[in-house]
Amino acid sequence: MGHGELRGVVALDGPSGTGKSTVARRLASALGASYLDTGAMYRAVTLAVLRAGVDPADAAEVTRVSTAAELVIGTDPHQPTVELDGQDVAAEIRDQPVTLAVSAVSAVPEVRAQLVEQQRRIVARAVDAGSGIVVEGRDIGTVVVPDAGLKVYLTASAEARAERRARQDAAAGRATTVAATRADVERRDTLDATRAVSPARPAADAVEVDTTALDIAGVLGELLTLVDQRGLRGVPERTGR
């Protein structure tokens, strides 16, 4: 990816259903930046664990599978890709079996250490290349890139988040109800916030943005304003005449 407007890193954290993934991609696109979905990485490892027939609660076996898995994450916001052992798994990692198991797998300290190291390498490459990068997840501002130029924590009411997730699942052909989705959202919130390693929480210096009453355009507008306030938007390099 070529040089864009973003200078440095935007860390975008928050629970599921806040519009995080959609707005992170759009922000990266608007700024000519790279994009990294760290949650997709944990989901891909979880898929590897399930394919291996390993119990997600068996930390030693989960670590073994994670270490052996070949994980490649694309950082183009227009077409992000997720490959596991050479296979495109971008759709499969969103299925219910992975969703139910990902919190257990992502709580394994060795898995987090492996993936955080990979995430930091991806971030460093993007910054060194001059494209800047928008990174989304649950521990970006606190663990992965604690020195990010802008840290944002997205929030929304549980009901709004459940409705959004249910719409996304329905659009993707996954059968669900708002009630079931809300229960799953709240279950994952509790697991992610109480895990021993890198619990999901806002960084002390993160800007909290409540997306309950905002559409994607509204959230994007707020984020672009924050980027400008932090002086992170440069002038994109011109190519040709």
Summarize this structure as a short list of keywords or feature phrases.
Rossmann fold; five-stranded parallel β-sheet; 241 residues; alpha/beta
Task: Based on the coordinates given, report the CATH architecture.
Answer: 3-Layer(aba) Sandwich
Reported for the largest beta sheet, the result is: 5 strands, parallel
User: Can you tell me the CATH topology?
Assistant: Rossmann fold
Number of domains: 1
Quickly give the structural class: alpha/beta
Give the DSSP E fraction (strand runs of 2 or more residues): 5-15%
What's the total helix number?
Answer: 9
What's the multimeric state?
single chain
- Write down the overall geometry: globular
Task: Find the CATH superfamily.
Answer: P-loop containing nucleotide triphosphate hydrolases
Strand order of the largest sheet: 2-6-1-7-8
Sketch the topology as an H/E string, one letter per element. EHEHHEEEHHEHEHHEH
* Estimated helix fraction: 40-55%
Rg on CA atoms, Å: 17 Å
Number of strands: 8
Report the span from N to C terminus.
Answer: 20 Å
Mean pLDDT: 88
CATH class: Alpha Beta
Poorly predicted regions are: none
